[in-house]
Amino acid sequence: MCTLEQRGRVFVLTLTGEDQHRLGHPLIAAIRAALAEVLAAAQAHPQGPGAALVTVAEGRFFSNGLDIGWAGASRARLGELVDALRPVAADLLALPMPTVAAVTGHASAAGFLLALCHDYRLMRADRGVLYMSEVDIGLPLPPYFVHVLRAKISQAHALRDVVLRGKKLKAPEAREMGIVDVVCPGAPETAAEALKLAEQLAARKWDGAVYASIRMSMFPDACRAVGIAVESDEEKSRHFASRL
After folding, report:
1. Could you tell me which of 26, 100, 17 has the C-alpha nearest to residue 67?
2. Tens digit of pLDDT for each residue in 195-243?
3. d(Cα 118, Cα 22) in Å, to the nearest integer?
4. Assessment of whether the complete model's pTM goes beyond 0.85
5. What are the CA-CA distances from residue 189 to residues 10, 104, 136 (Å)?
């Protein structure tokens, strides 16, 4: 399913194996358990020594979306998976450290969403696409998917092409659209550059709680949609004053 290791200040979450990394109940539970372990470690040192997370996958796929093989024709089962993934998005958007997705293969539908929930995205140029497939397969987008997409894809034409056209984006085009930050030649370079970026970010030794608070204030609608309780403006003011 997945493994978690710590390399210095960086936690590396790896989706293991050569399969499509379909997001079914077992993999979702494994990812949540790994993120809970990362959170516990961060909370043990709330003001240092700094940390970051890299998510990477083995094989040809970063993640090919929800486990529609398990769901079959059952909309109830598909709804179960949609609901089960929502807390993963919340865990990432609230994690008190920088997060980096090393997109080393295809990222489709919920797999694309998983990558978008990270702060930074690096992608290989030689293989793989970002693809929001729902319009092509005749499924409506879950509301929290829409909120995350709108938060993380700021260019209107890019959002349109991703959501309404079902455009398959290779790394260079995704970078032009502002969806991907760095394009790397292949999978090894993508993983290495993601780790390098995460190390640089962790070395800043930011206060994790402050980092998470700022992130959530940037994307309040997406955070609410995934179930995060976002501070009101009054609460933010009090929190800011308490830090002075």
Report:
1. 26
2. 999 999 999 999 999 999 999 999 999 999 999 987 666 665 665 566 6
3. 18
4. yes
5. 17, 9, 32
Contact criterion met (CB below 8 Å) for 14 and 3 = yes
- The residue among 125, 126, 111, 138 whose CA lies nearest residue 28 is 111
Cα distance between residue 176 and residue 179, in whole Å? 8
Residue type, 220: P
Distance CA(40)–CA(25), nearest Å, equals 22
Residue 110 confidence (pLDDT): 98
Output the six-digit token pair for 112: 């694309």
Q: Which amino acid is it at 218?
A: M
Question: Which amino acid, 18?
Answer: E
Q: Which amino acid, one-letter code, is at 200?
A: Q
Distance in angstroms (rounded) separating the CA atoms of residues 42 and 91: 13
* In the block, residue with structure tokens 């034409």: 157
pLDDT computed for residue 58 by the predictor: 97
Locus of tokens 């056209």: 165
Q: How many residues does the chain have?
A: 244
- Say whether 167 sits in a helix, a strand or coil: coil
Q: Which residues pair with 6 in a beta bridge?
A: 11
Q: How far apart are CA 197 and CA 121, in angstroms?
A: 10
3-state secondary structure of 120: strand
Q: How far apart are CA 51 and CA 55, in angstroms?
A: 14
Distances (CA, A) of 220 to 3, 144, 163, 176: 30, 12, 21, 25
Quote the CA–CA distance of 178 and 174 in Å, as a whole number. 6
Tokens read off for 1: 């399913």
DSSP state, residue 122 = E
